[in-house]
Design goal:
76% helix, 84 residues, single chain, 3 helices
Length: 84
């Protein structure tokens, strides 16, 4: 049974936990060369939470896609990454 007072608090807390777990797996890949499957699993968990928030109309995929495009443009300008 959950200790949360409302659905939004629970979903956002789980989202934050999944962000943290994805960060931890990325760090492990850098430090230990871990299998990318673990990172994929954590990103999948994170994506599930994003889908749940979208289903509740808390976020909008179109808006997120526009921000993603802007981020890619910024990376082209400020990073050494290629093929963005």
């Amino acid at each position: 049974m959950s200790n949360f007072k409302d659905e939004k608090s629970e979903i956002l807390t789980i989202f934050m936990e999944e962000c943290s777990e994805a960060i931890q797996e990325a760090s492990k890949m850098l430090r230990f060369g871990n299998n990318p499957t673990e990172l994929e699993r954590e990103i999948g968990d994170l994506f599930a939470m994003i889908q749940i928030m979208k289903e509740r109309n808390w976020i909008n995929y179109e808006v997120m896609t526009n921000y993603a495009k802007k981020k890619r443009e910024k990376l082209k300008e400020w990073s050494d990454l290629t093929n963005l």
